[in-house]
Amino acid sequence: MGEEDIESDADDTPACSTSYGGGFAAGFAMFQGSGEFSDVCVVFHGQEHPLHSLILGYHSEFFRRAFSSGMRESTQRRVELTYFHKAYTQTAEGLPPETIEAILTHKELQVQCEAQVLLFVLDYVDSTQLEPAVAAQLFHHVRLAYLSNERLVWLQQQAHSLLPAVLLLQGCLQRLQMQDQP
After folding, report:
1. Residue 36 per-residue DSSP state
2. Which phi and psi (to 5°) does residue 14 adopt?
3. How far is CA 6 from the centre of its chain?
4. 80 φ/ψ angles, rounded to the nearest 5 degrees
5. How far apart are CA 37 and CA 51, in angstroms?
6. Do 115 and 142 touch, CB atoms closer than 8 A?
7. For residue 86, what pLDDT is reported?
8. What tens digit of pLDDT does each residue of 121-158 get?
9. Contact 155/162 with Cβ under 8 angstroms?
10. Cβ contacts of 136 within 8 Å, gap of 6 or more
């Protein structure tokens, strides 16, 4: 891109490309970092982050639903992420499988997305020697149908030896059925 493709005002306004597509990513990153044109505030650990709902919704089913649900988050354009529990930062290694199952079936378990449950189970299974039947029982608590297509493909490519292939197949089929529903 030559100098003739760039226009800039003398008042320190960032240069904008006049060629099609030129510098779009760099220009967008500038807006993202500055908070300019942000339309939502995400609060995490007491810090406010001005962000763009379009980008959040594109990358996260949680945010897409939050901003389109008609709930408080969609009208106030503010999301407070207060439900991350500090206990999850600790490993579950060494806990008996019965305790893990009690955690996964607890009525007050709150997760942001099903991928958190999957990663928790994968971390535990990878760090603990389990019988295949016990690991399969833990994987039964992961609602595979609610994982993204990309996550399901990643999971299939990992070919985790303790994740029964039939469970993964059932999860994929359930996801397809859900997508076929109007």
Report:
1. T
2. -60, 145
3. 37
4. -105, 115
5. 8
6. no
7. 44
8. 888 888 888 888 888 889 888 888 888 888 888 888 87
9. no
10. 162, 163, 164, 167
Query: How many angstroms separate the CA atoms of 139 and 124, rounded?
Result: 11
pTM of full prediction above 0.70: no
Q: How far apart are CA 138 and CA 163, in angstroms?
A: 9
What is the model's pLDDT at position 83? Answer: 54
One-letter amino acid at 18 equals T
Q: Tokens for 21, please give them.
A: 């597509």
Of 175, 105, 94, residue with least CA distance to 137: 105
Q: What is the percent of the chain where pLDDT is above 70?
A: 73
Angle at 102 (CA atoms; ends 156, 139), nearest 5 degrees:
10
- Whole-number pLDDT of residue 9: 47
Ramachandran assignment for 122, one of left (phi > 0), alpha (psi -120 to 50 degrees), beta (any other): alpha
What does the alpha-carbon distance between residue 180 and residue 10 come to, in Å, rounded to a whole number?
A: 54
Query: What would the pLDDT profile of 171-181 be if each residue is shown by its tens digit?
Result: 888 888 877 66
Region of residue 80 (left: phi > 0; alpha: psi -120 to 50; beta: else): beta
Over 60: is that where the pLDDT of 63 sits? yes
CA 10 – CA 177 distance, rounded (Å): 57
Q: What confidence score (pLDDT) does residue 15 get?
A: 54
Closest CA to 63 of 149, 55, 75: 55
